[in-house]
Each structure stands twice: as structure tokens, then as C-alpha cells.
Design brief:
2 domains; 3 helices; 33% strand; 141 residues; 5 strands; alpha+beta; 30% helix; three-stranded antiparallel beta sheet; GMP Synthetase, Chain A, domain 3
Length: 141
């Protein structure tokens, strides 16, 4: 089943309005990149998506097992790093660091299992695979 449609609309600047059903977000670029920092930048939205998926997946699993998980906090950072290629040249690749903090009276085995589950959240799986993106030219409505 596909997700509901997300519509992104821009005005004259770099700020973007994002609508998904009844929900509204605003994105922008930092001042140093030509924006006015009026909202999340696109990579922050990517990290937020991964963090929300991670936290939700961990919460659902702990609830299903009846484990005493009081709170989940996911801290994320993104950067580009140079990677070695066979030809010897460097190529920038994306790297994300995700730290999962589990609050609750959990055993070491439960914590290890929840960390394993965190790595299998739907957005993690999507990011770890190749994603095909079809880009089409639309018409004004």
C-alpha cells in the first residue's frame, strides 16, 4: 500500500511548504546556504524520518513483548565522507550515525534485542537498499 501523497511547494526563496493530508511542515536551507533557516533542511527531515521509524519500531516491539521500556530517544547525525574507489580516487558517500537510548528497567539481553530491532526499522531497510526514483514532468493544476 503506498503512503499518502506528499506535496512540496516552493515560492521564490528556498523555503518549501510540505503537505501530507492534514499535516504541514516547512523546510528551508540554513542562512549560510542561501536560506533563512525557517524550517528543517532536507537532510534533517531524512534524519527525522529515520529516527521516528526507529523509535516507533522499537516501541512496538517492546510493547508486543511486554518489556518495561519507558522511553526511546534516537540521536542522529549525517555527513559525507570520502570513500576509496577501485580506481584510487575518492568519492563522497553518505554516513549516518544513529544512537538509540533506551530508558526502562530492561535486561542486557532485552537492550541488545531492541538495538537489533532498531536496525531493522522500515526506513533503515529502505535506506540500506537501492531505491528507484521515477521523476516525471507534471502540469500545473
Amino acid at each position: 500500500m503506498p503512503t499518502r501523497e506528499v506535496v512540496v511547494d516552493s515560492g521564490s526563496g528556498l523555503a518549501q511548504t510540505i503537505v501530507a493530508g492534514p499535516h504541514l511542515l516547512l523546510t528551508d536551507e540554513p542562512v549560510g546556504s542561501g536560506g533563512v533557516d525557517a524550517g528543517f533542511n532536507p537532510y534533517e527531515l531524512l534524519l527525522a524520518s529515520l529516527g521516528a521509524s526507529t523509535s516507533t519500531t522499537v516501541r512496538l516491539y517492546a510493547n508486543h513483548k511486554g518489556w518495561p521500556l519507558d522511553r526511546v530517544t534516537v540521536q542522529l547525525e549525517h555527513w559525507k565522507v570520502e570513500a576509496e574507489t577501485r580506481a584510487g580516487g575518492g568519492e563522497a558517500v553518505d554516513e549516518i550515525r544513529r544512537v538509540v537510548v533506551l530508558i526502562g528497567d530492561l535486561s542486557a539481553a532485552q537492550r541488545d534485542r531492541l538495538l537489533d530491532v532498531a536496525g531493522k526499522c522500515p526506513v533503515s531497510r529502505t535506506l540500506a537498499r537501492s531505491v528507484r526514483i521515477a521523476t516525471l514532468l507534471g502540469t500545473e493544476s
